[in-house]
């Protein structure tokens, strides 16, 4: 297929590659086993419907072409009348790999100072006796804490929208985002799956696959349930390019259109064959 000579998979950010191969701490839990079993069935269905195509070594789930997404934090923040809506920065657990914890720890002192000046809710955590324990970790030490029911690094801006201190801290101090922010935070609502044998699949959370990631139905997220929002491959284009190299998002869009055209042609040809019988 045109353009597929490019090796996008080979350009995958090494930190993301390591993150992908690190299982979540709850990988042996009953919930995870249930999600894995749902995932196996989902993947089988996608393959049997010819709904997966290749873009430079990266396997892409066709539904990625249909998901609409843009971050609209004014609709989900804990400080607004958000009704049934959930927020990725308030309601979801963000696990960290050992490497992510180490990267974050490099900035422990300036981060503590930065957060103390901006988040009074963290005063006890930062100044408390348990200083050895990183103020950002939960009781198990493997995920971000959520004091006052939102991520330890979340901020509520002057308009009541939920935002990210880590993102701002990185920008202010000229730190590359992945050097400090967990991969999970950068991806939402994209999903990367390590299929083993070096194969990687990319999709986005949607109504047909959310159970495979142990997530909530997309109707609970304002950024995933509004058909007026832009296609996720546009709004998350910079993230897709960060993941697999410059030009990946554009290539994916072209390859997706071609894949759909080929599928439609094949179905038409089959229909006329059946008619001709
Ligand atoms: S990505 Fe969605 S859930 Fe997360 S803050 Fe934005 S609108 Fe809310
Ligand atoms: S670190 Fe930032 S992006 Fe990640 S969950 Fe916390 S507030 Fe949200």
- Poorly predicted parts: none
Share of β-strand residues = 5-15%
Largest sheet: 4 strands, mixed
What is the number of E strands? 6
Query: What is the averaged pLDDT score?
Result: 91
Structural write-up:
This protein is an alpha+beta fold and 277 residues long. The chain contains ten helices and six strands. The chain has helices at 14-20, 30-48, 98-105, 108-118, 123-127, 165-172, 183-187, 232-235, 237-244, 248-276; strands spanning 52-55, 58-61, 154-156, 162-164, 190-196, 199-204. The strands form two sheets. The chain has a four-stranded mixed beta sheet, covered by helices on one side. The mean pLDDT is 91. Bound molecules: iron/sulfur cluster (2 copies). One iron/sulfur cluster binds at residues 71-73, 76, 87-89, 162, 188, 221-223.
Features:
277 residues; alpha+beta; four-stranded mixed sheet; binds iron/sulfur cluster
Topology diagram in text:
Blueprint: H1 14-20, H2 30-48, E1 52-55, E2 58-61, H3 98-105, H4 108-118, H5 123-127, E3 154-156, E4 162-164, H6 165-172, H7 183-187, E5 190-196, E6 199-204, H8 232-235, H9 237-244, H10 248-276
Parallel strand pairs: 2-6
Antiparallel strand pairs: 1-2, 3-4, 5-6
The structure holds iron/sulfur cluster (2 copies).
Residues 89, 94, 144, 151, 153-154, 164, 166, 185 line the site of one iron/sulfur cluster.
């Amino acid at each position: 297929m045109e353009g597929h000579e490019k090796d996008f998979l080979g350009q995958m950010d090494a930190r993301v590659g390591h993150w992908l191969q690190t299982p979540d701490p709850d990988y042996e839990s009953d919930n995870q086993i249930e999600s894995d079993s749902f995932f196996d069935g989902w993947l089988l269905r996608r393959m049997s419907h010819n709904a997966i195509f290749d873009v430079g070594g990266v396997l892409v789930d066709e539904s990625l072409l249909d998901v609409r997404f843009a971050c609209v934090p004014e609709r989900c923040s804990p400080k607004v009348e958000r009704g049934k809506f959930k927020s990725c920065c308030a309601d979801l657990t963000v696990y960290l790999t050992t490497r992510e914890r180490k990267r974050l720890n490099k900035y422990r002192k300036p981060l503590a100072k930065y957060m103390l000046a901006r988040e009074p809710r963290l005063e006890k955590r930062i100044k408390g006796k348990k200083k050895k324990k990183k103020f950002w970790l939960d009781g198990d030490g493997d995920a971000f804490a959520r004091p006052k029911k939102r991520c330890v690094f979340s901020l509520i801006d002057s308009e009541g929208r939920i935002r990210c201190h880590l993102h701002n801290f990185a920008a202010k101090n000229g730190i590359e985002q992945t050097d400090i922010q967990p991969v999970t935070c950068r991806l939402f609502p994209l999903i990367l799956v390590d299929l083993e044998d070096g194969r990687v699949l990319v999709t986005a959370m949607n109504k047909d696959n959310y159970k495979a990631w142990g997530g909530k139905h997309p109707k609970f997220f304002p950024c995933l349930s509004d058909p007026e929002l832009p296609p996720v491959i546009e709004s998350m284009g910079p993230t897709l390019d960060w993941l697999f190299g410059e030009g990946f998002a554009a290539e994916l869009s072209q390859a997706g259109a071609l894949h759909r055209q080929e599928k439609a042609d094949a179905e038409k040809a089959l229909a006329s064959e059946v008619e001709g019988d």
